[in-house]
Each structure stands twice: as structure tokens, then as C-alpha cells.
Design a protein that fits this description.
Blueprint (H helix, E strand, L loop, with lengths): L1 H19 L14 E8 L3 E6 L12 E4 L9 H8 L14 E8 L4 E13 L2 E14 L6 E9 L2 E12 L2 E6 L3 E2 L6
Parallel strand pairs: 1-7
Antiparallel strand pairs: 1-4, 2-3, 2-5, 5-6, 6-10, 7-8, 8-9
């Protein structure tokens, strides 16, 4: 009996610690200074945000997961994907993807956006793989503005697209920004 009780408390302790050690969330309060909003769009890419940095560190504990991995976007996955999107009230664009997360971010400070994509699978009976990146760029968000970021595949190449979402007359007009590429931090 004593062993069962001890085993129960060990399992309970591990479960509680695991639940408390969830992923870091980027959600800055306007009480801490000027803010902007960022939507990370994904269709299977991995995206990590490095706040207040002009470079990135792979596997950094301070990196914020913008979105990771992908799924098959089938008929029954759509409700699950929509329910899991993190939203902070940003206006929707006409080209929004199924999977996205929105964040309140610190304005007037650099933020490195790091993204990559790897896919391996069977197509018509043959194993295929494709990859893109890593690609990283620096966004300098301005106060009270909305942005979106996505890894885009076009004409056989991929790139990190960052846009400012400008609202005019009730319509959202995305304006693509030229962002500065960056590299891994020198540790």
C-alpha cells in the first residue's frame, strides 16, 4: 500500500511540474510601454520570435514559439486548427491562412523573426523531401501598428514576408516591408 501511495504522488508531482512548464508566451502589456501587434501565419513552417534582439540563437530558451510544425489540413482538422489559434483582435486580411497566432509585442525595439520548413513524405509511391531556410529578419515594430509575418513559397523559392496591415475605410491593406536579414548571434 505504501508503495502505491508513493508511486501515486510521484506521478502526480511529475504531471503538475510538466503542466507548469508550458511554452513561453509573448504577450506584452501596454502598461509596460508602447506596443504593436504581430500575426504569425503558418502552413507547416516553424517560426520563432526573438524579442529585443537583432540576431537569433538556435534552441534559445528565451525564444518565443510563434508557430511550430504542420499538419495535414484536411476536412476534420479545420475546426481544431481554428480553435487553437491565439488571437488578440487583429483585423483579418483576405489571404489569411488557417493556422496563425497573434501577439502583443513591444514597439520601438527590434524583434528577430526566425523561420524554417522541412517536409518529408511519400508522393505517388516515392519518398520526397523539401526544405526552406533557415531565414531570419529583423522587424522594428512601431507603436499601435499591426503586422503579419509568413514564410512564402513562390516560383520555386521561399522568403520571409513581413507586412504592415494598414486599415483604411474599413478595409485592411497589407503593405509589404523590406526587412533587414540577420544571422545567428555570436555567443
Amino acid at each position: 500500500m505504501h508503495i502505491r501511495v508513493t508511486h501515486f504522488f510521484l506521478v502526480l508531482s511529475i504531471s503538475v511540474l510538466t503542466a507548469c512548464a508550458g511554452p513561453k508566451v509573448l504577450d506584452v502589456s501596454s502598461a509596460e510601454g508602447p506596443t504593436a501587434r504581430l500575426r504569425v501565419l503558418t502552413t507547416g513552417s516553424n517560426v520563432y520570435l526573438h524579442p529585443n534582439k537583432s540576431c537569433y540563437t538556435l534552441y534559445s530558451k528565451s525564444a518565443i514559439t510563434g508557430h511550430t510544425g504542420g499538419r495535414n489540413y484536411g476536412l476534420f482538422d479545420s475546426a481544431t486548427i481554428l480553435a487553437s489559434n491565439k488571437k488578440v483582435g487583429m483585423p483579418l486580411t483576405e489571404d489569411i491562412t488557417w493556422a496563425f497566432h497573434e501577439f502583443n509585442v513591444r514597439a520601438n525595439q527590434p524583434m528577430t523573426i526566425f523561420t524554417s520548413y522541412v517536409s518529408v513524405g511519400e508522393v505517388a509511391g516515392q519518398w520526397r523531401s523539401s526544405s526552406c531556410g533557415p531565414i531570419a529578419g529583423i522587424l522594428n515594430p512601431e507603436p499601435d501598428k499591426d503586422y503579419d509575418a509568413a514564410l512564402i513559397f513562390e516560383e520555386g523559392r521561399c522568403y520571409l514576408r513581413v507586412r504592415e496591415l494598414v486599415s483604411e475605410h474599413g478595409k485592411v491593406n497589407p503593405v509589404e516591408l523590406n526587412i533587414q536579414p540577420t544571422s545567428e548571434c555570436n555567443i
